[in-house]
Design goal:
The chain is of the alpha/beta class. The chain has a single domain (2-277), classed as Alpha-Beta Barrel (TIM Barrel), CATH 3.20.20. Helix content is 40%, strand content 17%. The protein has helices at 26-42, 64-74, 92-105, 120-124, 133-149, 189-194, 206-223, 251-274; strands at 2-4, 10-12, 15-17, 47-50, 79-82, 85-86, 112-115, 152-156, 161-166, 179-182, 198-202, 239-242. The protein has a five-stranded parallel beta sheet, with no helix packed on it. The chain has a three-stranded parallel beta sheet with strand order 3-4-5, covered by helices on one side. A hairpin with a 5-residue loop joins strand 1 (2-4) and strand 2. The chain is globular and about 60 Å long. Keywords: Monooxygenase, Oxidoreductase. Residues 29-262 form the Luciferase-like domain. It comes from marine metagenome. Pfam families: Bac_luciferase (PF00296).
């Protein structure tokens, strides 16, 4: 499923999901999602991205890898990926192997989103100092990339140290699954673009998104042949923009039918941000 922008850029349509809590049992929520994704798979959607959140009604799928392994078995074409794995919450040695497993279980359909988390209380509940989140992310990402690309892991960092660790499973995709980073911060655009990292913007205005997209495209083109890019297997940039969409015969019907779900989502996203103050 693809179309083009006015300037000829290819648009691929995907799904971004939180797997929110509702009055149904979690098992029913999961089954409903899996049936939805079986349908999306047949309709040629490009990718299914899922967020990682904890102790909030915004998500009943706090383990994206486990959840996506089920998605992988019920689909065959649509690409799948966490957006994002919250790296400060993971032992990178374990995550390296989980990523390799998921890449093979999906037959090379994994898109690997990484991040540090945008809500301080979420990481704090795991005993992680939010002030150290960026440094932990950088160190964990370095370990992750080394482990995915090398037969043996050696790393000396601020938070993680490994010596002569051999892996018996490597990624299906070479050199590793495509790397994504979700951000609406203009200051992160140069880092993403120069390193060939795909990105997704969540709920920015069209004007802000265009500013980000243009800068990203410019820097991508300038650095696309750099040998030391993080996402060194990427051959074309992918920039995502998230929008809520609901389709009905008329606009009035769409608004009426989507209103309940929209309110539930707003309540859940507000819970995520407000619980830290309670």
């Amino acid at each position: 499923m693809a179309s083009e922008t006015k300037d000829g850029r290819k648009i691929q349509w995907g799904i971004f999901d939180w797997v929110e809590w509702d009055e149904n049992s979690p098992s029913q929520i999961f089954e409903d999602r899996l049936k939805l994704l079986e349908y999306a798979d047949k309709q040629d959607f490009y990718c299914y991205h899922v967020a990682e959140h904890h102790t909030t009604p915004l998500s009943v799928a706090p383990s994206p890898g486990m959840y996506l392994s089920a998605v992988a078995q019920r689909t065959s074409r649509i690409r799948i990926g966490p957006l994002v794995y919250l790296l400060p919450l993971y032992n990178p040695l374990r995550l390296i192997q989980e990523v390799c497993m998921l890449d093979h279980l999906s037959n090379g359909r994994l898109e690997l989103g990484v991040g540090r988390g945008i809500v301080p209380y979420e990481v704090a509940r795991f005993g992680v100092d939010p002030e150290e989140g960026r440094a932990m992310f950088d160190d964990a990402l370095a370990v992750l990339l080394k482990g995915l690309q090398n037969e043996t892991l050696n790393h000396e960092g601020e938070f993680y140290n490994y010596k002569d660790i051999k892996f018996w499973i490597k990624p299906y995709q070479k050199p590793h699954p495509p790397i994504w980073y979700a951000s609406g911060n203009l200051e992160t655009v140069p880092w993403m673009a120069k390193n060939g990292i795909h990105t997704s913007h969540i709920f920015d205005t069209n004007e802000i998104t265009k500013k980000h997209f243009d800068l990203y495209q410019e820097l991508w083109e300038k650095h696309k042949d750099d040998p030391d890019r993080i996402n060194n297997g990427a051959v074309e940039p992918k920039q995502g923009q998230t929008r809520h969409v609901y389709i009905a015969p008329t606009d009035a019907e769409a608004v009426a039918e989507a209103r309940v779900a929209w309110k539930a989502w707003c309540d859940n996203i507000n819970y995520l941000w407000n619980i830290g103050d309670s």
